[in-house]
Amino acid sequence: MKVSYYPGCTLKTKAKNLEESAISSMTALGVELEELPRWNCCGAVHSLAEDDLIHHVAPVRDLIRAMERGSSRLVTLCSMCYNTLARANRIMREDEVKRKTINEFMREEKDYRGEVEVVHFLNFLRDEVGWEKVVERVKRPLDGLRVAGYYGCTLVRPREVAIGPPGHPEILDEFLRAIGAVPVDYAGSNLCCGSYQIVANPEAAVDAVSRILGGAVGAGVDAMVISCPLCEFNLSGSQKGLLEDGRISREVPLFYFTQLLAVALGLEEGACRFDLNDRVAVDLLRSRNLVHC
Amino acid sequence: MPIQISDKTVKRGFIERVMKLSGQDIYKCFQCGTCGGACPMSGSMDAVPRRVMHMVQLGMEEEAGGGNTCWTCASCHTCTVSCPRGIDLARVMEAIRLLTLRKNVNHVEPSKLEKEEIKRLPQIAMVSCFRKMTS
After folding, report:
1. CB pair distance less than 8 Å for B123 and A10
2. Which residues of B touch A233 (CB under 8 A)?
3. ipTM beyond 0.90?
4. How far is A144 from chain B (nearest CA, A)?
5. Domain limits of chain B?
6. How far apart are alpha carbons A226 and A135 in whole angstroms?
7. Using only C-alpha atoms, what is the Rg of chain A?
8. Of the candidates A113, A185, A189, which has an alpha carbon nearest to the alpha carbon of residue A150?
9. Under CATH, domain B12-103 is a member of which superfamily?
10. pLDDT per residue rounded down to tens, chain A (293 residues)
């Protein structure tokens, strides 16, 4: 099976461990992720003003690239890209006036009416590959590893683009069970990590992170899985400071969920790019004999 | 501190602009405070979102736009999905930000970021921050 895939900017630089582990895992599961030709930055955040249509042009252009290839679906990995593409797509499907203006502005492109469906990798894994097949292909189950799924904001808010029931998404728990890990409930799976405030107001963002990590530590997790490079940057980058200040009692090993998928599928360690993770994450897997790097 | 409200203080143009930009009926807010209770950033705000909503209802342009609330908002939409009146507060915050940014004022100055900081930050952090905080 082949499916069109949108990587997004950060997956090509700081989050190669998200992209490379995802592509290798899908290949192992019999799915080829075909990178969209001539893709551009989605804009990272959805524009919320009624009169601001110019910022929808970038994500819509990506959707047109997918339509041109005859793709009915576009799979994304980064949570923020998913949110931005899915919300722009809804506007093109549902708002006739805005759709007309955007299409007229992009005269050089084919008219777009929301023909493509934006699908997050997790939903694709569940609905197209299926948990049964994942379970079947697991060679190195993460037996006993207690893992907290972290959704953050953009996978679950607003409601109209949520990848699962808002407030009670279960898809990461289902994923974790499929790869043999034990999903752990904790306060914080849907809390915001402070997002872009890490640039403008880092203290406020670190406060937000402390509540998420504090919840995970309190629940006794071994590790946490995420899907967003900005969440990863905020959570991972704030840990040492929070530990020094005594605001958390230990560091939490963080992984992109696709890295644990690749480990469970028995893929070679190079595909996981653990060199981009914190040492504490690699040490955990080594202590469980799951990796040897 | 008591606030004087009169025809002279209520900036009706401001109320209209916020409602038009956000597409939200700000008069629906009945001051329950659910938004601020849910907001992960409210501890760092001068005024919780409920107060800012009240300021907008009362046409207090300087107070609503002059505090740090809209600039501390991370657009996480927790308020939006929590509001019992169905108000998309994230859009109201965006409208208040834009009324400042559209005067050609940047809240964050990209050129002032240290070289090392730019190297350290992922694109996703800079693009999203500049989208929300520069004109």
Report:
1. yes
2. 121-122, 124-125
3. yes
4. 32
5. 12-103
6. 20
7. 19
8. A189
9. Alpha-helical ferredoxin (1.10.1060.10)
10. 999 999 999 999 999 999 999 999 999 999 999 999 999 999 999 999 999 999 999 999 999 999 999 999 999 999 999 999 999 999 999 999 999 999 999 999 999 999 999 999 999 999 999 999 999 999 999 988 999 999 999 999 999 999 998 778 999 999 999 999 999 999 999 999 999 999 999 999 999 999 999 999 999 999 999 999 999 999 999 999 999 999 999 999 999 999 999 999 999 999 999 999 999 999 999 999 999 87
> Starting at the edge strand that comes first in sequence, how are the strands of the sheet with A146-149 ordered?
A182-183, A146-149, A223-226, A254-256
Q: Say whether A4 sits in a helix, a strand or coil.
A: strand
- The two most distant CA atoms of chain A are separated, in Å, by 58
Is 90 exceeded by the pLDDT of residue B3?
A: no
Instruction: Report the distance separating Cα A84 and Cα A68, nearest Å.
Output: 20
Distance between CA atoms of B14 and B66, rounded to whole angstroms? 13
A49 vs B41, B95, B121: nearest CB:
B95
Structure tokens at A79: 């949570």
CATH code for residues A2-121: 1.20.1050.140
A187 Cα to chain B: minimum distance (Å): 13
∠ CA B117-B91-A234, nearest 5°, is 25
Can you give the residue ranges of every domain in chain A? 2-121, 140-287
**Using an 8 Å Cβ cutoff, are A257 and A232 in contact?**
no
Has domain A140-287 been given CATH number 3.40.50.11810? yes
**What was the pLDDT predicted at B1?**
73
CA gap A245, B117 in Å, rounded: 22
- Picking from B38, B25, B126, the residue whose alpha carbon sits closest to that of residue A9 is B126
| CB of A54 less than 8 A from some CB of B | no
